[in-house]
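Escalated from tier 1: S-adenosylmethionine holo job.
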Amino acid sequence: MARLDKSKLDASPISAVDLFCGAGGLTHGLLQAGIRVEAGIDLDPFAEHAYVTNNASARFLRWDISRKYSPSIAKLFSGNKIRLLAGCAPCQPFSKLTNGIKRHRSWDLLDNFARFIESIKPELVTMENVPELAQRGREVLDTFLKTLERCRYNVDWRVVNCTEYGAPQSRRRLVLLASRLGPITIPQGRYNSPEQWRTVRQAIGALPSINAGDQHPDDRLHVAALLSPLNAKRIRATPHDGGTQRDWPPKLRLACHQRASGARYKAIYGRMWWDKPAPTMTTLCNGIGNGRFGHPDQDRAITLREAALLQTFPSSYEFWEPTREVNRKAVTRMIGNAVPPELARSLGVALLEHVRSINSPQP
Ligand SMILES: C[S@@+](CC[C@H](N)C(=O)[O-])C[C@H]1O[C@@H](n2cnc3c(N)ncnc32)[C@H](O)[C@@H]1O
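Tier 2 regenerated the structure:
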């Protein structure tokens, strides 16, 4: 994993501000690419430690973005550089997990992002969200795209799978790049076939074994949720490497899963496969009842460190203050919400190449 090079960041032609920065997945990838990130903005107080500890000199501003005016954002950029406004507004309003909600208050947060673009007119923009933004959130996406069009941006957006960018995780996300400098395209990933995809084994296979309910003495994030006696029986009855609740004897099954409608829950209580990418890490990915979050062959859910590695955070990424007891719920939320740094790094490299190509056009 690339280390942050301070002199390279100081010399970067791009100065970025990260809206909705969380623990810093997007910021970290941009920094790894060589983009200087001045500040991240988020209202979650738990995110501050992770953000400032792992992200060079980027500042954390605990602001409610919906209450901020553009000048407070505009003055964060470094004066003589090309400005990149980056952001991943909360995804839950559009995701499949929020069935039945017609319009969520948080949808307005993407409108706030557009408001800043319209007023600041940064040369570059990048935005990431769930694919559902192009379906049930289409109206919100269209408003965002219209703002970019009105401000004369060149825009490219599409739904990508993070496996293509080297994440050992199947995670589909809508990504957008926009530039006022010239035409820009979302970069193609380098991992284009299942044989090339990074796997769970490559990401977490070397971590020490641990039992459900235990925390590793050398890494407080290598901590696995305690299982109830029934769930302990269930995970033991789930075959290693990809087994699911369908493999259980009837007495272990949940009533709702025995009904035909339970078919959609087949991944719940499942184990990951060693030699495939993991499923999408969510804000609840440390519980076996929340998806295919069982370890491939240990009788437990994945640990927080494993989730962070599957999200391509470096193994040294510090999510919680060493002197405070880890708030697992808060850390899992930050990890599950993050843009995988490897995806962000690819986008950052593409933005830097774009700027270079504009500065030294081909004859
Ligand atoms: C999808 S997460 C962002 C993840 C982050 N970009 C990363 O890569 O780690 C969305 C973030 O928006 C933040 N958020 C929600 N409402 C906000 C608001 N009104 N102002 C600022 N941040 C907000 C949440 O705390 C959450 O961290």
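The chain has a mean pLDDT of 93.
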